[in-house]
Amino acid sequence: MSEPTVRHPLSWTVAVPGVAFVLLLATWANHDAWPVLVAVAVALVGSVVAAVHHAEVVAHRVGEPFGSLILAVAVTVIEVGLIVMLMIGGGDGASTYARDTVFAALMITLNGIVGISLLVGALRHHLVSFNASGTGSALSTVVALAAVCLVLPGFTVSEAGLSYSPSQLAYVSVASLVLYGAFVLTQTVQHRDFFLPVSSDDHGRVTGLLDQDEDGHADPPSDRAAKQSLALLVVALVSVVGLAKILSPTIEDAVAGLGLPYTVVGVVIALLVLSPESISALRNAERDRVQNSLNLAYGSAMASVGLTIPTIAVAMIWIDGDLVLGLEPLQIVLLAITVAISTLTLAQGRAKTLQGVVHLVLFATFLFFSVKP
């Protein structure tokens, strides 16, 4: 989790949720004009960033393990809200929006966020160090979630195509929640030290914890600031879901008009949802706290799979249509390469600029083949 800064009452993180909510009410019935749609898009992006900020403030105040859960739930609400609104709108790609968004989130976190964090950290500090035991357990949980939720549907026979049967989807949802819950307990209670920033020698070998007081965070915000952020978080989340509903037809029309595959919609959603975490991870890497960057990357990947899939599964009770979760062969290959490279990256607990470049090239490859499959 990043360290949120409590903002001045007149800051943009306070103003944006209110402005976005007013815009939502004003444009709900009539939003066909392009200037209105541009304003909605800007408000949507601002609301996402503001929502994550306020979730971090509240999470920092209540402490662990509830803090991580609050942040993860907030991000999941944003992601699920965007996916559900697009699925309700129908369209040729509606059945695969959840799969494409979750897979894009995996590629963004495991290659994009990890790659830029390692590259920036190593360029600034020559070598970056992290706890291989903690980060390795995070990666293994992400791999298990991805395999169960996204790979296995293509190999089961109870349902045609790349979908789970209702009973299979129910089992996978429960299994995902168990995996996510077990990791949160491990990270925040049982083995918290494995996920704190580490100190290292001139060769990048880990020598101990960077925080001598075993506190990876700044002083928590006041009760008043936390309550204010909680109220603004609710407003921001409502605004995100409502504005996404308004904007969803425009996103689909734009993708279709450019002749791009519908998987690009999932990439756009994931990039939007993960943009605040990406910025936070980059800032931690600049401060030689790559462990925090990796925590953010793998934690976001875990929430994108372990919380989004079960929530979408419940939402399918009210949404007409199919839910396609199984990855296509090209996506499976990209995931397999990413898992192999990630394992090698984390094995030694230290990394050079080369590892960052490798992950970023894989991320660029994913983006290229999303546009040109």
Task: Give the topology, please.
Layout: H1 12-27, H2 34-62, H3 66-88, H4 97-125, E1 128-129, H5 132-151, H6 166-190, E2 198-200, E3 206-209, H7 223-257, H8 263-286, H9 290-306, H10 308-315, H11 329-346, E4 350-351, H12 353-371
Antiparallel strand pairs: 1-4, 2-3
Helix pairs in contact: 1-2, 1-7, 2-3, 2-7, 2-8, 3-7, 3-8, 3-9, 3-10, 4-8, 4-9, 4-11, 4-12, 5-6, 5-9, 5-11, 6-9, 6-10, 8-9, 11-12
How would you describe what is shown here?
InterPro entries: Alkaline_pH_Ca-Antiporter, NaCa_Exmemb. It is a multi-pass membrane protein. With 373 residues, the chain is an all-alpha fold. Helix content is 71%, strand content 3%. The protein has 12 helices and 4 strands. Strand 2 and strand 3 form a beta hairpin. The chain is globular.
Question: Which architecture would the CATH scheme give at its second level?
Answer: Up-down Bundle
- β-strand percent reads under 5%
What is the CA–CA distance across the termini? 35 Å
How would you sum up the global shape? globular
**CATH superfamily, called what?**
NCX, central ion-binding region
The average pLDDT value, as a whole number, equals 85
Order of H and E elements: HHHHEHHEEHHHHHEH
Contiguous low-pLDDT stretches (5 residues minimum) are 211-217
Which class best fits the helix and strand makeup?
Answer: mainly alpha
**Rg to the nearest angstrom?**
20 Å
- Looking at the structure, the CATH topology is A middle domain of Talin 1
Output the CATH class name.
Answer: Mainly Alpha
Strand order of the largest sheet: 1-4
